[in-house]
Write a structure and sequence with these properties.
2 domains; six-stranded parallel beta sheet; 6 strands; alpha/beta; 264 residues; Rossmann fold; 11 helices; 45% helix
Length: 264
């Protein structure tokens, strides 16, 4: 197994709050292992030239053994029509995503390198990624007990309720009707996930759609999902504490460069 001596943790202005906390704790624990850590937080909106310079430093100057990217940091430096810039790197890249897959759709459709890995927030989203984003070969969920709270609470706390309400107002009427049916099913079936309830809705109304249409519906339903979770499970962000012991086991995985490539 290749020795990991130097790591870059990359974030930007769009990285979630929990993503920034994750990066901060990862840096602390990795440094305790005598690993050299570069914590790069770039601001593309305020200074795109500096962001490009700092990103280029990763390969030209820092030369890390591993790159950890939170929430597709720096992807905003390119257009959606371009292949993600991480694919040009010859080192392993670990993507840690704290939003749901359909929120990153534009960038999930591209191929990724065999040595890259994706860790996502909600366990059931692993099967979603394997079904709809088949060019992503290695995907796992973060350990659920990492946060000391339900993972959906982690997801919903990042979103401002007033903005979600504004998003909901602009939805087409048919999506609002679908949303009401979805909420009724969620109230009846407390164990259902967002997609379980949505697929049942679509089946009940006899709506048959392509994968692309289904992903569009998922994206439009975001405000419905999030407002529902915020109502059902209000979260105090300050009470969310990353569990160091669990994080240590996650870092053990990250540092293992001899993982088995999944071809599912």
């Amino acid at each position: 197994m290749k020795q990991i001596n130097k790591i870059v943790i990359l974030s930007d202005e769009n990285t979630t709050l929990i993503g920034r906390r994750f990066g901060k704790l990862a840096k602390k624990l990795l440094q305790q292992r005598r690993i050299e850590v570069y914590d790069l937080t770039l601001n593309i909106t305020e200074n795109i030239a500096d962001a490009v310079y700092q990103f280029d430093r990763i390969g030209l100057e820092i030369n890390p053994d591993l790159l950890i990217v939170t929430d597709f940091a720096c992807i905003g430096m390119q257009s959606p029509e371009e292949e993600p810039l991480y694919n040009d790197m010859t080192i392993p890249v670990i993507h840690v995503l704290f939003r749901r897959p359909w929120e990153y759709h534009t960038f999930m459709i591209w191929r990724c390198n065999f040595i890259d890995r994706f860790y996502i927030l909600v366990p059931e989203d692993v099967s979603h990624v394997r079904k709809y984003y088949r060019k992503i070969l290695n995907v796992k969920s973060l350990k659920e007990d990492l946060f000391g709270s339900d993972v959906r609470n982690i997801w919903s706390m990042e979103h401002d309720e007033k903005i979600l309400e504004q998003m909901y107002i602009t939805l087409p009427d048919y999506v609002k009707v679908l949303g009401e049916r979805w909420k009724a099913i969620m109230d009846q079936k407390k164990t259902y996930g967002e997609e379980d309830a949505l697929q049942r809705c679509l089946k009940e109304i006899g709506f048959v759609c392509s994968d692309e249409e289904y992903l569009d519906i998922l994206f439009m339903m975001q405000s419905v999902f999030l407002l529902y979770h915020k109502t059902q499970h209000p979260v105090d962000q300050e009470k969310i504490v990353l569990q160091e012991a669990v994080m240590e086991t996650m870092l053990d995985e990250f540092l293992n460069t001899e993982f088995q490539v999944s071809l599912l």
